[in-house]
Write a structure and sequence with these properties.
Elements lengths: L1 E5 L3 H13 L3 E5 L2 H10 L4 E4 L2 E2 L2 E2 H9 L13 E5 L4 H10 L3 E4 L4 H16 L6 E3 L2 E4 L4 E4 L2 E3 L3 H13 L6 H8 L10 H13 L5 E3 L3 E3 L7
Parallel strand pairs: 1-2, 1-3, 3-6, 6-7
Antiparallel strand pairs: 4-5, 8-9, 9-10, 10-11, 12-13
Helix pairs in contact: 2-3, 6-8
Pfam families: Response_reg (PF00072), Trans_reg_C (PF00486)
Main location: cytoplasm
GO molecular function: phosphorelay response regulator activity; transcription cis-regulatory region binding
Length: 228
C-alpha cells in the first residue's frame, strides 16, 4: 500500500512513517497543502492521512481540491482520505466528512487503530467486505501479513508478501514493473532494476509457478480464476 502522510508535526510524521513502514507500507510525508498536492499529482496513493493544521494552510483545502479534481487523471479524486487531527469537535468532524473524507481519527490515537482503519478503507475502496483474500488455494491475511496455501502457512519475506498482495488486489489486471514499484517504494527508495523480478521468482518457487503469470514485455498478473 502506498500512503501519503500530510502532517506538519515532524515527530508525528516520522513516527507514523516508521510504524507504517514496519507494516510493509511505502510511506511519503509532507508538511503542507502545496506539498500534498504536488505528491498527489506525481503519484497514485492508496490512502492519504491528512492533518488539518498544516504549515501553509488548512488541510480541508487540500481535501476539497482533491475531491473536485477531474476523474480519470491524477490527482485521483477517489483517493481514500483519513483525517487525523486534534480538532475533535463534532462540527469539525461533520465538516471534514461532508467535504469528502472517508474517516476521521482524533489525536492522540493508537497507531494500531489507525492501521486497522486504513485496512478497512482499502477494503471499501476495493469493493469487498471480507478481511481476508482468497485466491485459489491461497488465503491471504493483510492484517497479520500471513499466507496459507492449502491450509498450510507459507513463509514470505515482507517484500514478497507486498508484491503478492498488490497483484492479488489488482487481479486480473496486468501490472507493469513500474506500477508494482510505485505501490511498494516511496519517492526516496533506492532499488535494483531487477528487484520485482527477483520477488516474483521467489513467489513462484514458494507458491507454485502458476500463481503469478507473466505477459512478456508488459508485466505480471494473477488470474481471476485459479488455473485460468
Amino acid at each position: 500500500m502506498r500512503v501519503l502522510v500530510v502532517e506538519d508535526d515532524a515527530g508525528i510524521a516520522q513516527g507514523l512513517a516508521a510504524h507504517l513502514a514496519g507494516l510493509g507500507y511505502a510511506v511519503d510525508t509532507t508538511d503542507s497543502v502545496a506539498g500534498g498536492w504536488a505528491a498527489l499529482g506525481a503519484e497514485a496513493f492508496d490512502i492519504v492521512l491528512l492533518d488539518l493544521g498544516l504549515a501553509d494552510g488548512d488541510g480541508m483545502t487540500l481535501l476539497e481540491r482533491l475531491r473536485q479534481s477531474p476523474p480519470g487523471r491524477q490527482p485521483d479524486p477517489d483517493t481514500p482520505v483519513l483525517i487525523m487531527t486534534a480538532r475533535d469537535e463534532v462540527a469539525a468532524r461533520i465538516a471534514g466528512l461532508d467535504l469528502g473524507a472517508d474517516d476521521y481519527l482524533a489525536k492522540p490515537f493508537d497507531p494500531d487503530e489507525l492501521a486497522a482503519r486504513m485496512r478497512a478503507l482499502r477494503r471499501r475502496a476495493a469493493g469487498r467486505a471480507q478481511p481476508k483474500l482468497l485466491c485459489g488455494e491461497l488465503e491471504i491475511d493483510p492484517a497479520a501479513r500471513t499466507v496459507l496455501r492449502a491450509g498450510q502457512p507459507v513463509e514470505l519475506s515482507g517484500r514478497e508478501f507486498s508484491v503478492l498482495l498488490t497483484l492479488v488486489e489488482a487481479r486480473p489486471h496486468v501490472l507493469t514493473r513500474a506500477q508494482i514499484e510505485a505501490k511498494l517504494y516511496n519517492f526516496d527508495a533506492a532499488l535494483e532494476s531487477n528487484a520485482i523480478e527477483v520477488h516474483v521468482h521467489r513467489l513462484r518457487r514458494k507458491l507454485g509457478e502458476q500463481v503469478v503469470r507473466t505477459v512478456r514485455g508488459v508485466g505480471y498478473y494473477v488470474p481471476a480464476e485459479p488455473g485460468a
